[in-house]
């Protein structure tokens, strides 16, 4: 993605967003339009020199507005163009074709799921990349046990996972993050891209495993 | 611990396996998978798996895969050892002297059995969660994230690159980048998967000869001249049988440490004293083919 | 998250846009939000199975709406969020932070020009004048394998390179040169600027590395 980040925040906000047409909300739209990854509220707050709470509130409002829910203001967006779509404008509040979402630790523009059939004609990636069941299960083990060595994942799955792990790394879903201080084995963890693919903002949002598995944590040491 | 295993629904375990445990190369996902499938097929409580039956069927399964003669089949076959170890865990627990949990070590071994079941459960739990995650991914794939090239207007603002890399250094970076990905995968021989019949009684007899001097022998030395991994496995089973028959004493300081064995039975002991259940030879394969495979899962 | 548009319009409109929430306008928004290059009215018309004239009219309306001019309909968008920017809502119609522009025969979303200062600040945040090691390695792989797809570079490097490749394109070291005739994937090559940086006159002057690197070709399957 970007090159090595250096000590950030040494520049002042280049402009007072309140003086611009559309204010903070429009400034956020402008920035997210060029972002190629989720952008955190913290980063936005820093660039715009606006408190994080205000940034979050503005983003929440935008999201609600795009979703066709009424925003804080009473005015609403009505993107329906009269020529064709007049039939749908029942409530006067219509979702836009895009949405703003918090995934992978930040905010990002997405096309709305309903439009997948027309959008997919313009984007190739994402259609070709179904994961095999073995890959999916391996990914699940890493997601819940990270950071974790390949040996440990192998032990839990009962099969050699080297090939699958390499594929998952090549796909950007897993990354080598560290080395075990004792064994020296490489440790793997999921990436922000993994969170994006699952539509999650953070690992805490992973489905609870406990209903599926009572009391498994204690047997961790059984197979180092 | 068995309360952890309220029910094992045969149907949901592995739908594909209901068709008589047919060969399913694409879906082969390892011994736990197979074991779960077998348990499901026989509608067995996971805590009372009939080992003899499951072992036989697993070997049958591996054999069927080998006949397919595909790389996936070889992968599957190479995993024989893993399931063998798994079954061995179960077997070891069952071979313990029953009804007399006298000390901590016995207790620990009994717990090992429960831990094995727990591991199977853990495996199943991850399978379930993986299915949920897969569904999330599928739903999520309907949305597409905006990810567009940076406008030239902004790209031109990026700081001018400081470049100190010489063409030679650059070539070296390229060479390393290519090399890193072209390591050859580890080869694992599967010669152990076929050959000769091995029986627990034979191996018990073999052990008796080795231990007769009455000295304490490390298990490593007892298997030092074993012809194959299969012999090692069966010899270890034999050792457990001998232990149950109180023909040997075992000593191990810590898990994974050397296992020390001392002969304790009378001099007239013979392997005939062992139970009948091991009379049938373990014969993992008979097609005589040899191969070595790369232990990689098949990722479609 | 790469999005390589394939030859658009080879499929029939999979869905009647009028049945979707937001109708044609929202469908256009969805497509343009994620297309990574300007999209022509013709391609949009083909994919959506809507006459070009209707597409153009809908796009004009959207553009006007984003610009804060009243759209065809009487309803208007008011993105001003009450917390902060209330001051600007003089007319009740406020431009958004993004705009639709026609460039090179196609439509594309851009950040609104007024917000260039904050967008610049965001883009420059954390940028350095040095390439990261990952970027350098990726560049090296492309240099010796060009023209090459991102998927292939990912396979060779064993990690997802989408972000790094974008950086290298943004830095002018790589360019999209072609499309793979079979997969439709974009192919990348180094630029004259890259040669200039390396002090070479042509690619032939790149030092030879061992002529055959075994196994590289088999890695193709890594990424569908």
Characterise this structure.
The complex is a heterotrimer, with two copies of chain A (224 residues) and one copy of chain B (300 residues). Chain A is built from nine helices and five strands, in the order H-H-H-H-E-E-H-H-E-H-H-E-E-H. In chain A, the strands form two sheets. Chain A has a three-stranded antiparallel sheet with strand order 3-5-4. The radius of gyration of chain A is 22 Å and the shape is elongated. Chain A starts with 22 loop residues before the first helix and ends in a 26-residue tail after the last helix. Chain B is mainly α and 300 residues long. Chain B has two domains: 131 residues; 100 residues, Arc Repressor Mutant, subunit A. Chain B is 48% helix and 5% strand. In chain B, helix 3 runs antiparallel to helix 5, helix 5 packs antiparallel against helix 6 and helix 9 packs across helix 11. The two termini of chain B are 37 Å apart. The N terminus and C terminus of chain B are likely disordered. Classes of the chains: A alpha+beta (224), B mainly alpha (300). Chains A and C meet through helix 1, helix 2, helix 3, helix 4 and strand 2 of A and helix 1, helix 3, helix 4, strand 2 and helix 5 of C. Chain B: One of its GO terms (biological process) is chromosome segregation. Chain B: This is Segregation and condensation protein A. Chain B: It holds the Pfam family SMC_ScpA.
Q: Spell out the helices and strands of chain B N to C.
A: HHHHHHHHEHEHHEEE
Strand tally of chain B is 5
The neighbouring-strand order within the major sheet of chain A is 3-5-4
Number of strands of chain A: 5
What would you report as the Rg of chain A, rounded to the nearest angstrom? 22 Å
Low-confidence stretches of chain B: 1-29, 182-196, 282-300
Largest sheet of chain A at a glance?
3 strands, antiparallel
| Share in β-strands of chain B | under 5%
Helical run tally of chain A: 9
How many domains in all of chain B?
A: 2
Secondary-structure element order of chain A, N to C: HHHHEEHHEHHEEH
Number of helices of chain B: 11
Largest interface: A-C, 92 and 103 residues
InterPro entries (chain B): ScpA (IPR003768)
Keywords (chain B): Chromosome partition
Protein name (chain B): Segregation and condensation protein A
